[in-house]
Amino acid sequence: MKKILTILVFTCIQFIQAQQTGISKTPILNDPLSVKDVESQQKWVDAILNSMSIDEKIGQLFMIQAYSNKGEKHQNFITNMIKKYHVGNLIFMQGTPDKQVALNNKYQAVSKVPLLIGFDGEWGLDMRLKNTYRFPWNMTLGAIQDDKLLIETGKRIGEHCKRVGIHINFAPVVDINTNPKNPIIGNRSFGENKENVTRKAIAFTKGMQSVGVLANAKHFPGHGDTATDSHLTLPTIHFDEQRLDSIELYPFKKMFKKGVASVMTAHLSIPALEPNVKLPSSLSKNVVTDLLQEKLGFKGLIITDGLNMKGAANYSSPAAINVAAILAGNDVLLIPQDIPETIRLLKDAVLTGKITENRLNHSVEKILKAKYLVGLDTYKPIETQNIISDINSPYDEVLHRKLIKNAITVVKNNDTILPIRNLKNKKIAYVSLGDDSGKPFVNMLKNYTKVDVVSADNLSLLLQKLQQYNLVIVGFHKSNKNPWKGYQFSHKEVTWLQEISKNNKVILNVFANPYSLLKVNSFENIESVVVSYQNSVLSQELSAQGLFGAFDLKGKLPVSIHQNIKEGTGLFIKGM
Predict the structure, then answer these.
(1) DSSP-assigned states of every residue in 493-532
(2) Spatial separation of the C-alpha atoms in residues 307 and 113, rounded to whole Å
(3) Which residues are registered as beta bridge partners of 117?
(4) Least C-beta-crowded within 10 Å: which of 177, 275, 298, 311?
């Protein structure tokens, strides 16, 4: 074991050194708004801007979807959009890293001005690409008390992005999730505490921008307290300006001062900010220009949320929506529809003075400055060798382990039942609830002592079987496929849990969103409650080790789960 650990550490050191020697001349972006060589940046930007036609300038406003898992027809479509309509930016979607890099190089080669490449990688490249690394969701990271680990995570995700040619990662989500029924944010949020969310978001941003990848604070002015999904409809935020300023806007204001490079505007109806309740906030001048730019003083890149989402798309025709987004004050149209008609309308708006050329130049200049910041002034094709090994390294695994260890949260620990001691006197059973596998958890438990897996078709039989055990570990396992998957206890599962805990000493280990515990109406008879947040193999294995005292348990809940179990709850359990 010691030999294996030594090899692993040595491999990590070698990998880190290789990464450091491979870094390009891309400027460091601790504060992307204060470029050291402003004169060179402006000179490069001016040279391109002054040579552009109106059509070419308008093309810079678009960031369209590109897939690496689609065929030649799609590739020809993207190439045509770049050549004919001068599209200046791409957001890559599903596919594989190798294919994405190949297409990235291909599309860059046909573009007159280097393309800014965007990506949704909130928990890493795995959010979109196969064969890539997945880090924990924000809710899990929100339980960690050492914010330096968030810097490390942001940096590593940034390095992965950079390796495959991504310049701007649409992360972190900085929405404060104060609504447990939120269907789209939830696990994507760092939690309900504005201070914790802000610290985590700033740390993540610092790490990612330190390696030359632009961060994006989303979804402005705050999507955390909604009960509907803006992909499907237009959610309404009913709060007054004072509440919005003190809660929803809080992390954005702090991040602006720390130099976050860009903001994503959300599709929301906010009557306190925009009187037209049918107008999405992303298309509102009151929100995008008056609030974001003038009142809050944000000078970075402003990008709409996806304009194919129903929260925006239901408002008007695609081209009219795109024009409205520019009139509102956005710089980049994300996933715009009907580009030919949009170009026609925007050209007409410029010719008639509805949009001045200075206004158009303002956004194009910001986009070009962003391209300079990420090194596109000296663009080189992305290296195509060793991509998979570079973005799936031993270092990633080591970091992931640190994150999980620091996140595991002990909510209750009556009679100091944790860590589990006196194994000779313990007769332990494991009962699985939920609809996903708990096999890695059980296998690791069995490495410490004898643990019997007990199951039955009905509750009476299960209780009968458990009579011979003096400790029952109940694992609640829900799918780890994506953060939107259902995570609640069923009525039957709650009933079984309560009956088991009335008759046995119980450690409940939850491998799901902490909001799942809202369904558990009483914890009175449950000796210990542990929240491990996700049902990944690493989370299961490390949680099992933690129960036996392999390391300290020190996470804190990022959200409230019960009247008496508030956000910030978390017992420190010293390892043995």
Answers:
(1) HHHHHHHHHHHS-EEEEEES-GGGGGG----TT-SEEEE-
(2) 24
(3) 90
(4) 275
- 10-residue mean pLDDT profile of the chain (576 residues): values are 40 38 34 66 96 97 98 98 98 97 98 98 97 97 98 98 98 95 91 98 98 97 85 89 96 97 96 95 98 97 94 88 97 97 96 95 97 96 97 97 98 97 96 97 98 97 98 97 89 97 97 96 96 98 98 98 92 96
Q: Which two tokens stand for residue 507?
A: 């450690």
What's the pLDDT score for residue 224?
85
Residues 6 or more apart in contact with residue 85 via CB below 8 angstroms: 55, 59, 62, 339, 340, 343
Containing 471, the helix (H) or strand (E) segment is strand 471-477
Please answer whether residues 151 and 206 qualify as being in contact, where contact means their C-beta atoms are separated by less than 8 angstroms.
yes
Query: Beta strand 471-477 with 428-434: parallel, antiparallel or unpaired?
Result: parallel
Q: What is the pLDDT of residue 90?
A: 98
- Four-point Cα dihedral 286, 292, 294, 300, nearest 10: -140
Query: How far is CA 122 from each of CA 55, 273, 392, rounded to the nearest angstrom?
Result: 33, 28, 17
Say how far apart CA 54 and CA 508 lie, in whole Å.
63
| 188 CB-near residues (< 8 Å, 6+ apart) | 122, 137, 138, 139, 173, 175, 483
Q: Which residues pair with 173 in a beta bridge?
A: 218
Pairing type for strands 528-531 and 409-413 reads antiparallel
Query: How many CA atoms lie within 13 Å of 573's alpha carbon, on the beta-carbon side?
Result: 33
Q: What local confidence, expressed as pLDDT, does residue 94 receive?
A: 96
Chain centre distance of CA 369:
25
- Using a 10 angstrom Cβ sphere, with 0-12 exposed, 13-18 middle and 19 or more buried, the burial of residue 229 is middle
Under DSSP, the state recorded for 292 is I
